[in-house]
Amino acid sequence: MCIRDRLNTGSVKVPLEGMLNIDKLKNNHGLSEFLWVDVFSFLFHHKEKGWFMIDTGLDSTFQKKGNIKGILANNFIKETTQKKYQNIASLIKKENAKINGIFFTHLHGDHTAGLPEIDRSIPKIIGEGETIFNMPLLYSSNHLDKKDTLLEIDNNRGITIAPLESVIDIFGDGSFLGINTPGHSPGHLSYLINTNKGPILLTGDASHTKYGFNNKIEPGWVEDKGLAEKSLHQLIKFHEKHPEVRIIYGHEQ
Questions:
Q1: Is residue 192 within 8 Å of 199, Cβ to Cβ?
Q2: Model confidence over 117-127: pLDDT tens digits?
Q3: Is the pTM of this model over 0.90?
Q4: CA dihedral over 116, 62, 135, 32, signed as positive or negative
Q5: Residue 193 in contact with residue 202, Cβ under 8 Å?
Q6: Which of 116, 121, 118, 119 is nearest to 141 (CA)?
Q7: Is 163 exposed, middle or buried (0-12, 13-18, 19+ CB in 10 A)?
Q8: How confident is the model at residue 137, as a pLDDT?
Q9: Which of 100, 105, 150, 241 is 20 to 30 A from 34 via CA?
């Protein structure tokens, strides 16, 4: 298995309280009230099954003003920035990859916003119980529509790989594992990819930043605080047990 490094599709400016549970921050944390964070997609290749994506990043509308709008936008995303040819369609074209499937960590808008530029017939795979995040007052385009078929990963296939409680061997050969990490969203998945350069753990939004991971602070924007905290601690304990695993956080280089 080989993986292209993160495809950086742009950046968004968000409140600190969204990225980290500020109740757990010390007064002298030194972090700004707002953070610029990157929005990624990941591209990887399986020797038999071909090219796949994890999340879709941002489409080219993020090069224009007005892609974030409405009253709700001020509570979530303050500003966005994207360079020319940084949108997901341009990056995929540059890689010359034929995508056979898209796996999602979850369906929040910053992880699905590239879909309007991608072939709608490509299979889309989500965690069991994941819900569609569709807020027209926040995003200018509908990322998912009735033509999109979402395939859920069966949690009954999950096994315990301590300290991880539910791990799904997606391709059946140990190369690509889905880790149930609910909390930020109901069916959130983190992923472990066993590459030819060593294993890589993609936390997704179970941990937006290295600061949160290192300080055991779950995200502030969560649907279930208890589950978010539990999921993060499982990933931290896994990394403590396997320090050779490279960590890539949800929104940080």
A1: yes
A2: 999 899 999 99
A3: yes
A4: positive
A5: yes
A6: 116
A7: middle
A8: 40
A9: 105
